[in-house]
## 1
Amino acid sequence: MLQDKHGPIDYSEQGAGPTIVLVPGSWSSESAWRDIVAGLRNRFRTVTTSLPGYGGTRESRTSSDSSVDRQSETVEAVIRHTGGPVHLVGHSYGALVCLDLALCGLVPLMSLTLIEPVAFGLLRQAGEQTLYEQFVAMRDDYVRAYEHGDKDAARRMVDYLAGRGSFDALPSRGRQYIVDATPTHIRDMRSGFDPSIGSLANILLPSLVIRGEHSAEPLAKSADILSRAMANASLRTIAGASHFIPTTHAAELARLIGDHVLMTESLAWSSLSFASPFGPGFRNPAGSVS
């Protein structure tokens, strides 16, 4: 556990070797990476954490200050504690936070692995208005249902992201956790930002974007747009997977992460600076994510 100006931050590390920092998404904590860590720890130093409001990391956002900055500051504190530079990996909302860190360039990074980042604003910018509006309609329906007393409203979002019936297929403990954390998830959606497509070319880091074969079309298309916009990115699709890849396809995901990190290490690019001065100007606190 770390301590920064906002309070405690989850921090755990295992193994030795190149440092990989793993950032979970919404409705999740550092424990979400357990199976990934098991697949990596013999070759790498793995560091896990939780975003504000999840696990043991204190909620640092307020009603008047809910921008992505608070989440980014949490991960920056973790990276600084590792001694850096690090290979940064994020899933879903955590991947969006990782994207913000790469754009801001305030901490030393060697590579990025972004697993279905919820960068839905890219759809609108790329002219995919129908897909963008599809997501917005679902998001607004979910939030409206919760605010009108439907405590299981999260079922709509989970089934949208991972396929019909996914919420009911979860163990009862998992369903209850999601229900209890719904207010935090809604705050996450209001804490996002829309990176501009033009700004993404400033990220020079070797980057891997991963999506699931059966993920919702807006997620899959966003991943495609992102990978094409970044200067040094590749796109991989995991067969049979939907949005919750770290849980359902841990072994294959660990292999992709490990291979990407080793490839980057072999290039010996750690002496280069990948920092971008363009990040903060592209944040949009009103951006919609999940």
## 2
Amino acid sequence: FENFSEDGKGLQCLQVPSIDEMYDCYLAIVPGEILAKLYKEFSNELLESNVRAFLGQAGKFNKGIRDTIRNKPQMFLPYNNGITATAESVETKLVDNQLVISRLYDFQIVNGGQTTASLYHTQKKFKDVDLSKIFVQMKLTVIKDKEQKNIEVPNISRFANSQNKVSELDLSSNNPYFVQIENLSRKKYVVNPENKNQSRLWFFERANGQYRETLNKQTPAQQKKFKEQNPSALKFVKSDVAKYINGWELEPHFVAQGSQKNFIHYTKKITDLVSKNKLPGENFYRKLIANAILFKTIDQLFGRKGVNAIGDTSLKALSVAYTVSYFHHLTNNRIDLWKIYEEQRIDDVLSRHLYKLLVFVYNHIITEASGSLISEYAKRATSWEKLKNTAYSEDLISVLSEYLISEEEKVQRENEKEIDTNNIEDSVFVISEIQKMGLKFWDGFRIYIDTHKPDGFNWSIAFDLVGRLNKNRNLTSQEITFGKKVLDYVQENPALIDEVKSLSKLEDKEIIEVKFIYDKLLLVSKDDWKRIIDVASQTKVFDNLELANVKTVQTALAKKEKIKEQALIRAYESLKKLKKFGIKI
């Protein structure tokens, strides 16, 4: 706080007399300028424990905050509820016989994130805004026990006053289960079915408004690139996770109860998993995204109101949920989700069967509801049991056999241990992100270090990194660590990217996305790898070095071991040669 306060002394505060050994509490009046500076410097990190990212200024309450900032800044303190914050520890000192906060560790605004973000965004948008008249009251709680912190911070958020209504969906934002899904979604590249040479990401919005806030921090050029890699159509939220998985687990009657109730039911199921530290891994993520594709496909098949809908669109959501679960029931949960995940689409043949099934389910629900309110009928477990016990005109296990896995494979996938590949994937992910910034950026950053002398950045490492990228060589661990530090640095200063690029005279080279290759090769089954090795050995399509490299990569993938990026790229290029033998990667 010393660095952000105008006089450099820190933030004057009042310490509340201790009533519990678990925490200390402080009250303070924070200048609006300090909050805006903090948000500019740390943004999403500052609000990490907040239940939502910035929701924009179109909403009723946030528009009111903006108008007060512009028109009545002197009334902001009495009008606004203030902020509730937490910290891991605090440093205080006496200045002129007044207690001041000089330093905070792991400072988090758990309630009042909209206020904080609004101060920054309003000042940024309207250049005539004067924050010097704005003050915000703050209640700061320092939780001394780290284990209790994870329990009490959500409770503080839950019970604190709020200007925007907070739902159970919002309050679950910091659940480790959803934090892990967010981590997976930022790293698991998938193929674009419209362009097989392009990779994309499904964007999990753990906190409401994350997608929009990420875009708001970027330049127009960066926004375009971000949207290409993270299309809004692939954005999903916590209630979607509950919907997709409960549909897979044959509970459409809960999905029909609406997003809030369905989500509460889902969180009850995962509570025990979280307590045992059984968090989502690679297999879960494939299952989740494949079911998302299935849900979205059936939703599109239902059609839109007044255009091509098969029936009453007010019954669309429940009809889709029931169809998904009925399909999984009829196929005994044997649909090859891994294949759907890999291809990122449902083909025309399967789509026609799903359409026929959707019409059947829709008509069944309307008929069985017989006069009662259909939306209420669909919420009952007995309604789902009735559909399950209704015979369908086709034996889908026989008709769709090419889309199904065996019972043995199904059991194997269900029992397969979720392996934590974070350390390996983090390394591959960082390398991929470094490469995607381009040669021009890294050469420019080398020059930027020389001219601006930013703290903690070594020119010689930057020089070596540029050389390795230019010659397509593996990066050293030191260069990867350096690259990650630079990526974090420019993430907080996105406008710096274009400035840095302008310093370089080099041209960018074609990018080969290592993470995309890594994820693609991870999807190759044991049987397919055996076939690859057999075909390559018999046909001599690979030379000895190529074959040895492919075998090394396959072994490393199986054992979840680290792989050098150039080995991955060479293996991928080698495997492309097998296309003429009917092997597609």
## 3
Amino acid sequence: MSDGVGFVGLGNIGKPIARHLLKLGRPVWVHDVEVGPVAELVKLGAQRAHTPADLVRECSHIGICVRDTPDVEQLLYGSAGSGRGLLEAPAGTLVAVHSTVTHEAMLRWARHAQMRGIHLVDAPITGGASGAEAATLCYMVGASAEAFARCQPVFATSSAKQVHAGDVGAGTALKLCNNIMTYAAFTAIDEASRLARAGGLTLEMLIEVGRSNGVVTPQMEAFIGNRDKVAAMGPEALAKAFAPFGALGRKDLTAALESAEKLGVDLAATERVRQIIEDVFLARR
């Protein structure tokens, strides 16, 4: 088996992660539907994977950082069931899913991978694009002890922390819980700021008090500051910059609520946040 490291999905988080992989001193193969990010990384020393089949042939570790559950499914099984997906890799290959996906899908993929002798682990991340650039991400990993040990040197190139949450599926479960806290915090500062302004107070006052008691986190402060700055440029600018994040928030919260329903856990507040999260990102309320 080749000792290459592969990476699929070169967006604002995936591209810096893939760039950091070059620190390993192993061949790094990258793939994306957009040619621009691939070309950038090839200039830095990566190899171009024209198809997932190239990754299967060249890599013993393959990371996936694409948008959602259907995108991961297509990569694993191939387009329209073509049988040319990453689950056709040789036995012993490790495939790490960094995307936020449903817990049910992750467990199903892991069962199929195990039957093929492939180590499929879930390793979603938190820290955003800035954390990816600075190599300060936190990886939440669901894997056996053996698979986690294999992952650690690869994940260390772009992280400040790796949490071994448990067996396969535990990383996804932890990420879904983290997402609930993140979007609830954004909603809280959105509503608090609207009430403050309506009462003649300023956002600066609110943040000053929130900082003093730990209620306002740097992430919340960055969100409300950046959103309001772009909102001042007009609704079109705001929609262009923040609509994708609102849609992502709804998708992430839907995944969390689906998991909660299967486990018999009532998350009434999270359901409400899901209903309004796109409006929160677009300052529409």
## 4
Amino acid sequence: MRVGLAQVNPRVGDIAANLDMVARYLAQAEDAGCDLVAFPELTLSGYPPEDLVLKAGFVADNRAALEKVAARTGRCAVVV
């Protein structure tokens, strides 16, 4: 099993930019023949999200982004 570890610097609260970053790293991992690529905790929301999690729609937007990651996943599993 080949594992890729993504060392990334997500932007707090910028789910769209973080999703694009995850997609780029996932593509690189797949090109490198990885079976699994792991990202740091809270990669999609950025760390620390603090009071952003209390804003209407923020959690739903995170879930939608996670579903997009799942849809883009091919033979390489992703941990975010």
